[in-house]
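Submission checklist for the structure archive. All mandatory fields must be present; incomplete records are returned to the submitter.

[x] Identifier: Carbamoyltransferase
[x] Organism: Rhodosorus marinus
[x] Residue count: 749
[x] Sequence attached
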Amino acid sequence: MFGFVPSFTFVGCAKVRRRIVVCGLSAEEPSKNIVLGLNEYSHDASVAVADGSTGRLLFAASKERITRRKHDAGETGELVAHALESLGLAAQDVKLVVTNNHHFRVLPFEKRLPFAVGIGAYPPSLLQDPIRGKVEKREISHHLAHAWSVLPLCPFEEGLIVVMDGMGEHIREFTSRKRTGHYVCDYDLPKADPFMEFPAEKEPFVGYREAESVYHFDKMNLSRVYKRWTPENSPPELYNHGFENMESLGALYSRVSSHIFGDWNTCGKVMGLAPYADGETADVEKSFNENGQLFNGQLITGDIQIDLEALDQLPAVNDWTNEESRGFYIHLAHKVQQEVEDEVLSFLKELRVRTGAKNLCFAGGVALNSTINGEIIREAGFEKVYIPPYPGDDGISVGCAMYGAFCSSEVGLSSSPRDSTLGSPYLGKLYSELDIRYALEDPEIAPYIVVEEAENQDVIIEKTAGALADGMILGWYQGASEHGPRALGNRSLLADPRDPENMTRLNRDIKRRESFRPFAPSVLAERANEIFELDGLTDNVSPFMSLTAKVRETMREVVPAVTHVDGTARLQTVRKADNDKYYRLIQLFAERTGVPLVLNTSFNVAGEPIVESPTDALRTFLQSPIDGLVIDNSFVLRRPVITGLEEVWSVQISTSIIEIEQRLTYGGLESEIYVSLLDRKVQLLSEIELELVRYLWEEDPEEEHEITVAECRQLMSMEEIPSDDCDRALLSLYRQRIIHFRDVNGDVP
C-alpha cells in the first residue's frame, strides 16, 4: 500500500555510474528506475522525469513547447514520448508515474476512458500513450504537488512552504471514503502546532477547493500549518469550472485579468499595467464595499470575502481595444496588485511570528507575481526565500516526479547542505549539433538565411557581445530549454539596455504586443548591487527572474530599456556556475559598454510559447524583424533582399503548403486568400499571387522540368498581366517564404 510517510528512513543507492551530460548539466547516467511526474488533462500540461534511485531531476517540459499552443492542455502521451526520447530512455525504464489534475481525479477518469473514447466523447489520442497501462500510476493532491516541487530542491533544510493559487483540489477527494493508497493528499500529513484550517466547520452540500496552504518542513518531513478552502460559488460545470467566482487571492487576480484582457491566464499583463496608475483610484474604489476594498477579512483569520457583486457590476468587460477604457483598467490593475500584495505580506509576517520559521518557499500561481515576491524578500522578515523557476502549474509535474522519487524508499537527502544545482531550470531537451545542422539546412529555411559559423564558443560570444553593443536585437538559442515561463538565457531575445528605442522595437515590431509590457535585465550577480537597490540582500537574489527591484536613480538613464515606469525591473541575477556561456556574454558586453547587464525577454512573439527546437527558433526569427540569431556557435542573418529577378532563375515553391483557402468577406463582394503552411498561415496580397501559387503548387512534382522566372512571366502575359506586376508578385511570395529562387548553378541568389 502506497501512502505518505511522515518521516523517512532511506537507503542510499550504492551503484557506481559513469558521468554523462543530462540537459546541459553534469549528472549521473539515469538508472532504469525512472519516475515520471505529470500535470495532465488541464492547462499547462507538463512532464518531469526523475531518477528513482538518486532523486535527481533529469528533465521537465511543458506541452505547449511541443504543440506550439500556449498553455496547452489535455493528454500527455506525445510529451512523454518526447521526454523519454530526449533522455535516451525506453518505456520499460519507467517504474512509476505520479500525476495530478486539480479539476478531477485522474485514475477514475482514465479507468473509464476507453468507453468514453469508444462512444466518441474524447479523441482516440487520449489512449495513445507509450506507457499507458504498463506502469503503476499514483496521484497526489494539487497543493501537495506544488509543495513537493520545492521541498527537495530548495537550498535550505527547514522552513515554511506557502502555496497560493487560484484553486486547488476539491475537498471531496480529501474526505472520500473510497480514497486508497494510490491517492495521497494533505490529510495524510501530521498537523503542526499551531495548525489552522478554515472554515473549521464546512457547510453541508457545498463544494470547497484549496485556496491557500502552508506546510512546515524539516529536511524531508512535511507537516500541515494552514489550509483555507474557497467555496464554489457557481456551478463547476460552467466554463472554466466557475473559477472567476472563487474567493482566493489567485482567483481574484485572475478575475481582474479576465475583466481587462478577456483571459484569466494573463495576470502578468495586469502586473505590468499596474504601475502606470498615479495612485488615484477613486473611480474604482467607489464600486466596492464601504472601505473601497476588493475584499473584507484576512487570510490569517480565514475570513476573507471577496466583493463578487461589485466585481460583477464593473464596467467595460474585455474592452481593451477601446482606448477610453484604459484609464479605468490601469486603476483597476493597480488596485488588485496593491491589495493582494498587502494581504500576502501581512499573512506571511504573521505566519513567521506564529511558527518561528526562518526560511520560506513560495509556490503556486501567485508566486509568479514578481512585484509581490520582491516585497516578500525585502519586507517579510525571513532569512532566506526560495521561489522556483516554475511556481505555476507547469511545476506540478516536477512535484509529482519528486514525490514519486523520494517516496520510493531508495532516495534520501543527507543532513549536509543541499546540492545547489538541484534547482536548475535548464531541464528541456539538449538538441544535438546534428539537430541544429538539420534545421539550418532545412529546404524551407536555408534559402532565406546566411549562416556564419564560429570556430568555437569564445568567438561566437565575442561576436554576439559586439553585435549587441552595436545595437542589434538578437535571438539567443543555446543548450537545453528552461522549464517555466521565464527565458533565463537559453531561449532569449537580447538587446542593449542603454537604448530606449529597443523597448518600442521589441514590443511593437518584434513581439507585437502591448506597449506597456516591461523587459527584464540579466545582470552579473556580483555586480547587481551597482544597478539595483537590493537592500543588503545577496547578489544572487533573483536567479530565476522571480522578483522586481528598484533601479538606482543614478542608473535609470543608463539602462532605460529595462527600467519600468515605476523605476523597477524584474531582474535575473546570473552566476558563472549556473550558466557559463550566458555569463561570459554579459561579461564581454560589460567590458565593451561598462554596463554589466543585457536586456532579456522570452524568444517568442505574442500568442506563441517560447521557442523549443532549433526549427522553432529559425521560423520565429524569419517571421519577425529580429536582426540576427545566435544558435549554438552559428550566427544567422537574413539573406539580403532580392530587388530584381533574372529570367533564367528557377522558381521553387514551398513543400510545406497544406491548402489554399479563399474566403468571401462580409457582403460577399471581395475575398481574402490564405495559404496554409505547416508552421503558419499567410494572406496573399493579390490575385496574381494566387494564380502563381496555384500554378506552381499544382505542377506535377515528379516532372524534372523547372519553372523559370521567364516562364512565369510568359504565363502571366497570357492573362494580360505585365512582367513588372508578375515580378512584384514573385518577390512578394519570396518575402513571405512561399517560394524561393535558384540560379543557373543551383545556388540560392
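[x] Structure attached
Curator remark: Residues 326-355 form the longest helix (30 residues). The chain has four domains: 1-145+391-421, 154-387, 433-638, 650-742.
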